Amino acid sequence: MSNLDRQATPSVCGGRGFVVAEPVRELLAPRHVQLGGSTEVRRLLPNLGRRMVGAWAFVDHYGPDDIADEPGMQVPPHPHMGLQTVSWLHEGEVLHRDSLGSLQTVRPRELALMTSGRAISHSEESPKEHARLLHGAQLWVALPDVHRNVEPHFQHHADLPVVTAAGLSATVILGELDGAASPGTTYTPIVGADLSLTGGAETRLPLDRDFEYAVLSMSGEAEVDGVPVLPGSMLYLGCGRTELPLRALSDAGLMLLGGEPFEEELVMFWNFIGRSGEEIVQARNDWEEGSRFGEVQGYDGARLSAPELPTTPLKPRGRVR
């Protein structure tokens, strides 16, 4: 998915300087962004108060939207570099096309994982015949320097491992949780899991003390470590935890995001993650000139143009608040 904000501003992120090395409870409010067609998203990362959680650098939550009489998601071809995109649905379908020739319909609780490496482009759209509701999340994972120029590739996994406990079903999207490992390719120590809780459930989720974590609320009412978290909000939890108390006030859906704090300083502009302003400028020029990022075949419409660059130089500065 693309960042369609036409007033795109650079985000400086990464580095350990502002990692919270102890448990905290920091509730993050979303910013509302129009994402083409009839889709409005709630953007949780990057956030004014928190730029990254581990290698997770971008989090959008959308829906549930009634698109029975609407085109639904319509994101034209656009580029990516230096990151992985993670598409995750609770309801509806999304048709993925990319410049490698991939064509895949993604359905609820299936992992669509696109590794951009040095350069890729893709589009995302609701199929012409689609379900009434569309509800999901789009996330980016920053690639570490040693892997950020890997060959671009796309993975689709419909069968993912599930961890269960009383009142809890946890689908492991990326990384490992309680001994269950996702088949999705990762390049940093990371975890992503979809948590389904039945109303009245109280449980504790095992965590890695060295990871920092956040929980995104997708639906229902739940308390995370005693803090009420409503749909479209995210609770940052810091590091130093070995378990996480969860309590469902109704049937609820959450996403657990975590990972080892990302050491490297980054520059994120539009749909690019790089290490210098010059690198971002070159990527934008390459996209506008039609080179490097390939071509998405089959999408009915024009590709996206890149937003204008800011007048001030783009510089990596590490984690800031």
Automatic annotation (TrEMBL):
Pfam families on file: Pirin (PF02678), Pirin_C (PF05726)
Superkingdom as given in the UniProt entry: Bacteria
Region (Disordered), start-end ranges: 302-321
Coiled coil: none
InterPro entries named in the record: Pirin, Pirin_C_dom, Pirin_N_dom, RmlC-like_jellyroll, RmlC_Cupin_sf
Family of this protein: Belongs to the pirin family.
Protein's UniProt name: Pirin
Organism: Streptomyces badius
